[in-house]
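Let's do one together. I've listed all components of the complex below, 616 residues spread over two lines.
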Amino acid sequence: MNVDKFIENIKNKEINTYFQKNLLAVNPFKSHKIENYKYSQLNKIDFNKSHNYIHELNLNTKDNFLDDFQKSKVREGISSDHISWNFNGPDSAIRLSGLIEDPFNHIFNLDNINNDICIIDLSLYEEINFVFNYTKNKKISIVIIDSNYNIHKSPKCFKFNVYEKSNIEILQMSYNKNTSLIFYEFNQFNSSVVNLTVLQANNIHLRNEYYFNLGSDCICKISGANFSNLGINDNYSFIQHSKPNSSSREIFKSIVDHGAITNFQGKIYVNKIAQKTDGYQMSRSLLLDDISKSNNKPELEIYADDVKCSHGSTVSNINEDHLYYFNSRGISSELAAKILKKAFIQEVLDSIENISLKELSDKMINEFL
Amino acid sequence: MLNINNLKASIGDKDILKGVSLSINKGEVHALMGPNGSGKSTLAYVLSGKDKYEVNEGTVDFKGKNLLNMNVEERANNGLFLAFQYPMEIPGVQTSFFLRTAINAKRKFNNLPELDALEFAKLLKLKAQELNINSDMLKRDLNVDYSGGEKKKQEILQLSMLNPDLAILDETDSGLDIDALRIVSEGVNKARNKENSFLVITHYQRLLNYIKPDFVHIIADGKIVKSGDYSLALELEDQGYEKMAKA
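Okay, and this is what the predicted structure of the assembly comes out as:
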């Protein structure tokens, strides 16, 4: 199937023909087997035994989701034009491609890198598992580029061991008619900081899963934005507060139109001993037409009795009154909608700390929003 | 400038304007006063083109063009400006960015080159100083967490930057303390000239102490019931709406 024609079909609102027949079969909200939606399997998992959880799920999806994923008809004929952004970052940026050691498992010791920014272009790797270890106090920024240029369609697993008092910032960018599957596992040791920002745009089928295990006094921030998607965009997060005094902030924003589907399911899990946990989770969707869908399921599971946790979820169209305000100042509805869409995800962009990463994300926004 | 003739408008099934006629010439300032629910704000919204309201009858001529045929942004770009009673809060949009977008939209409409960042910053600094607005406020999101006074000042800043031919001020005085009222009024007075006109909507005569109108109209139950000069506002303050509307 010609991908341009396929996308043309989507734009012509013939979405039902493809996604709702073929891909909805793997919509996590339809099948309990691959998603612990509706009933929780958490009681079967021993969280003290690190994360065998991720492997379980991995196998599960290999059988079901991934087969479809790999057979996905839409892959045929996808142009692999790599949109090149000239990354004008500081000289200290490095591509990690030279560090390959093991064909199946990559263990990167980030301590050995003297640069402020690492760029990981997934198109350079055939491998599945990446393990990153970081122990330094100095903040390191990592950019993960996941575009259609990524010809190795295997799922990727990232495991980050963020040791005591270390500080990592990650920006994942998935774009350009992409289909991909990424798992993250973060083991945050005491007093560590992780700031993960995920931008997803113009993709055909994407699924990201985030598993966090927090020690005490940790800060964990996840911010995600997806927009201009062509098919299914799926985010699943699981944040486990294992020890006291940690805080987690999670914000996901979706802009959905042209019959695309976004799913968000996120859980904050607070262990019995994780007192003084401060958890916040918010998912917001801007649903621009009535053939698109947005499924949101925020969850809290709390066993400690002295915690502050909140969550929320909204779905709305662009505020008519906002549009009117712009119009009344002579700004066309088209331009106003563009500005308001950008404004909608601004909160996510603001969470990026590194200036070069901010610039990079701006380029992506201008390209696809 | 503006000629309203027998304008009738409704929202849903409810008739609000029941035949308003009003004529505003170049360089004039008109005040429109009336009790709650008389149709003051509705008139402002109908003129600006808000689609919630339906015009059932009447004509509105603005600078020789049929205003009712234009959409909201065409009206704005043709020189109509409405300063809102409750300015919208828009998170994620920086105030100065909004102002620049608005100015450039108007310049584009008039086939003028867009202002570059430097020219815009100069103009903004000048106009903001006149209204005692500090630059911090302009860096914040549009109207978000602004005080009532700051919101109104920001509206008047937009007015002075966009330099409209006809500005409608919808209860700009509500929610303002005395100092803010004076500053906002001074801003309006600075924007006044022989080429532009104002329609000032208010409940209270106090605002008119600062912005001296040429004409005062009293609206009640969707119709203009009395017109006169500034002394009408004083009379109104003295006697109250009920008595005046009946007379």
